[in-house]
Amino acid sequence: MASMTTRSPAADAAKREKAKRAPAKWLLAPAVIFLLVWMIVPLGMTLYYSFRNYNLMMPTMTGWAGITNYSILFTDPTFWSALKVTLLIVLCSLIITVGFGLAFALLFHRNFFGRGVARTLAVAPFFVMPVVTGLIWKNMLFHPAFGLLAWLFRLFGATPIDWLAHFPLTSIIIMISWEWTPFAMLVLLTGLQSLPEDQLEAVRLDGANKWHEFRHIVVPHLGQVLYVVVMLESIFFLTSFAEIYTTTSGGPGTATTNLPYYIFQGTFAQYDIGTSSAAAIGAVILANIFAIFLIRFVAGNLNAGENR
Amino acid sequence: MSTATRKTSFGGIALGILGWIVALLMFFPIAWLLLTSFKTEAEAFTITPHLFFTPTLQSFETALSQGGGYWHYAWNSAVTSVVSTLFGLVLTVPAAYAMAFYPSKRTDFTLVWMVSTKFIPAVGVLIPIFLVYKNLDLLDNVWGLIALYTAMNLPIMVWMVYSYFRDIPKDLVEAADIDGASMMQTMTRVILPLAMPGLASTCLLALILAWNESFWSITMTNHSAATLAVFIASFKSAEGLFWAKMSAASVLSIAPIVVLGWFAQRQMVRGLTFGAVK
């Protein structure tokens, strides 16, 4: 702002500034209104339904339900198992994708023959439709008789495993990790390549060893990038659906029923709007617990940007 | 990190080979899908996998023609992802512009609020949206799906575009203001051309996310507005029957996006990191 006062009187500048600010508000309005209508209003309605008697199969049962829906939910063992499955998927997939993502990023940060092509091949799974991922793994890799893994097991004289029947949750986590490791790798690789060279030079001149370099420059810099990976991945892992829908349909039993699948079934198989809405509110609260930690980073990053 | 310069050492070569092994292992399921799509059903479904066979386009022909087939769904996928991206852009650019160049006290709050809406899981709004759509006759309707995809991608798009705008020196806008340019002129003539690469990668990401989306399309559409995700998901019940056809349909569904993704990977990632990577 200071630069423009040198060219015109301060009062004039302030006036112009004010005139520009007013339409700026209108520029923001459409996006905010759209999000309000499509996200916040439905969220309010979900909250409302969660306190109502509402089942599409029983149209005569209406009115306020008090906390009945919530007490039905909290006494349903499937809800608790869905919560556990959701958390297991998020935490295990986060650990695997970030771990392998970091290892792969360090590997691809080095120069080697055909690195560009190799990296391009390695990131491809991220762009594959999750529905397709489910079908590839379920049929062509995990199938107990005709799958490639079964063939590989027989080749080494082992008994093939029926992955989706005996290790259903592990299988789901493998599929999700296969899709998202490339994302973590790509972001971390970009982070590695944008390391502040001048700072690295400076500490090297100061005679810092590799460990110091890693500890004081690489880690803080990658930390920020890592935060972004964890935030975006959490958003998507909390809502995993396609991989489960196309492979196990939440089974066997309820072994792979996560919260989205639980709500999906409650709505479209049991038509129980009230209880499903209560479960949906549970899913929103869970997501917000993650959000509190992660949004703080985004807000922090915002303030850092003010110093440009 | 400086080890990257020691190319010829034994360890360097070993790590290079490891890099290739990783790449091939990660890509393998896709390669196998591609291979299977050129097989006959009998060859696709064998106890001992066939690596060498006479390639045939038979499965592609079936996938393309049978039962309304690929094109119906591909058209819906293309329309919903392209139109929702354009809608998103129309809503995003002015909003990000206002926040990047005319920040107020509430700008920080608005931005964080927008990102936080991304933390409302789709299931959190599924039921009301389904019921309202049912009443408004928007179920199995392309426009209903387009609106959902726009809302789904809007927070990420605003953030990406905002971070690209933030990299443009504010002085440029101030200079244009002083020269008497209207806000519209400044935006379209000065800022948008500079932000073009950023806008392009934002659009690509929105396109990819919408094309690959499956939750909304599975719950909200049935046939007339069904996208490729619904088409592919319909193969889930035909387990063990039509692997070659399923593979051909899958290849046709992921090929455009995988290729698009390959071209845009770097720019996309940069925008997605919310300014953490320059």
Automatic annotation (TrEMBL), chain B:
Gene Ontology cellular component terms for the protein in this record: plasma membrane
TM region positions:
12-35, 73-97, 109-130, 142-162, 190-209, 242-264
Q: Name one Pfam family in it.
A: BPD_transp_1
How does the UniProt record describe the way this protein sits in the membrane?
Multi-pass membrane protein
- Cellular location(s): Cell membrane
UniProt keyword list = Cell membrane, Membrane, Transmembrane, Transmembrane helix, Transport
| The keyword Cell membrane is annotated on this UniProt entry | yes
InterPro entries, from UniProt?
A: BP-dep_ABC_trans_perm, MetI-like, MetI-like_sf
**UniProt record, GO biological process:** transmembrane transport
Please tell me where this protein is predominantly located: membrane
| Domain annotation ABC transmembrane type-1: ranges | 74-264
Family, similarity comment: Belongs to the binding-protein-dependent transport system permease family. MalFG subfamily.
Q: Which PANTHER family match?
A: INNER MEMBRANE ABC TRANSPORTER PERMEASE PROTEIN YCJP, MALTOSE TRANSPORT SYSTEM PERMEASE-RELATED
Q: Which protein, by its recorded name, is this?
A: Mannitol ABC transporter permease
